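Worked example

This section walks through a single chain of length 425. The input is the sequence exactly as stored; nothing has been trimmed or padded.
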Amino acid sequence: MTRGCLITTIAAPLCFLASGGFAELNDRLGPALDHPAIEYYGGALRDPVSLLNAKLESGEARLRFEGPAGYLRSVLAALSVPVESQIAVFSKTSFQAPRIEPANPRTIFFNDSVAVAWMHSGFIELASHDPRRGMIFYTLAQYPVDRPRFARQTQCLSCHVSDASLGVPGMMVRSMFTAPDGRPMLIFGGSLVDHRTAMEERWGGYYATGVKSSLRHMGNAMLTGDDPRAMVSPSTLRVESLAARFDARNYLTPYSDAGALLVFDHQMHMQNLITRVGWEARAAGAEVREKKKLLREAVEEFVDYLLFVDEAPLASDRNGAVISSVFAKAFAARGPRDRKGRSLRDLDLRTRLLRYPCSYMIYSPAFDELPAEAKEAIYERTWRVLSDPVSGPRYARITSADRRAILEILIDTKKDLPGYFHVVG
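Given that input, the structure is written out below as tokens.
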């Protein structure tokens, strides 16, 4: 059985088809890793970890080895990854599956461009988003040396290029039923997760802390019998700290923050979409008419996801916070704000993920470096959805107040918007 790196499931036995316009794109383009417009293996990299490697080589940066976590805290600081983003996975997945168990979970930390995974007694794994090529995978050995370096790992692509990642080197988040020893119980199935996934199907194999309501999810739950429904109980739904679940003293925090989990669920698929649209614009077939048709279909799916059109609700009313998140403040502090103090990084955590439903990934380097043709099509589609209150029943959930707020935030904070965005009715 092949195991991936930062993937939070064992994906080799499972096959999922991309939805919407990407189904045809997968048949046509496939994993074009060697295409001259992509050069996944041979091109010059500009992802955060490769840039840090260059600084380590020149002496501009150094990593410190400290205590049980080794280089972890120093790596997070060097890559500007917040400690508060920690989420913990207890299912036996990744390169380090034999080491993982509920008493020794694997933690993942992330920002907009890189994810860092670590577990006690294990090595560090990294997935770093290159604006052109998609995810680049690395490991860092956990023993002190004078000049530590990140080693690129291409074998991760055996799981990290699939229909589940939209046919590009990317990330997949899976929720699965997990035994008390951490074994994924594949016979019971599982879910491929993003922000469209119903909450009751999320977080199987993860710890989740900070859920304040009766919101039903699979976090913290382990399957001990033949009835998957029986594993979820009040004691698994509401967990404030992991200190009682395992010895958390060797970990950076005693949390697997539910707010961070929700952001992670959204972001991993959003990154795949950005990579896929970029690949399609750079490397699709030369026939212009067909290329434009495929790009249009891809952009429609991209913008629907960008604007959370099909987001699964967290709750049906606004009577109190659903999630208490130590991550929310750190996350919100990293984004630009408009003249009214609003940001696309403001979390709602009551009925939905974001207060203003437009992905903050629109500010990411990978989005900024999309080919002009793709970016123009995305902006045009985004403007049409936000400026036209009669966009069809699927778009009715984006209220007029949401539309206006998103437009105003983008106008104030996104420098390369086309001029027509500045005409707000």
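What to look for: The beta strands are 87-89, 106-110, 114-119, 124-130, 134-140, 151-152, 174-176, 190-192.
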